[in-house]
Design goal:
This protein is an all-alpha fold and 112 residues long. The protein has six helices and no strands.
């Protein structure tokens, strides 16, 4: 699995950016981390269309499901896609923490 493109992000700074930008950072984070997951999973799909789906009520659920499936593939199914999807719907910060923690670990391994 290719992980040299994954960027390590500081969780505290992300919370600060989320507050400063009134939540717009969450959209940016969704896009860039989904792009990183796609590349790590060997896909050329664009994360842009999935990010646009966030703005459409029903399609946003499909975007959350797609992200959950990509994350599950990235973690070699350590976290079932259904549980990650339910976390998106119920309490978004859980997904944010899980995904960013695993991406940071991958970035650390790639930098060694």
């Amino acid at each position: 699995m290719k992980t040299d493109h994954i960027k390590k992000r500081n969780m505290v700074m992300q919370v600060a950016l989320m507050l400063i930008t009134l939540g717009f950072y969450a959209i940016y984070w969704f896009h860039v981390t989904l792009r990183e997951l796609h590349l790590a999973n060997g896909k050329d799909e664009g994360a842009g269309i999935w990010t646009l789906f966030l703005f459409l009520p029903i399609l946003s659920l499909f975007a959350f499901w797609h992200y959950s499936a990509e994350y599950t593939s990235f973690t070699t199914e350590n976290h079932p896609a259904l549980l990650v999807f339910l976390a998106w719907v119920v309490f978004l910060p859980i997904v944010w923490f899980l995904v960013q923690t695993d991406l940071n670990k991958a970035a650390d391994r790639a930098s060694i």
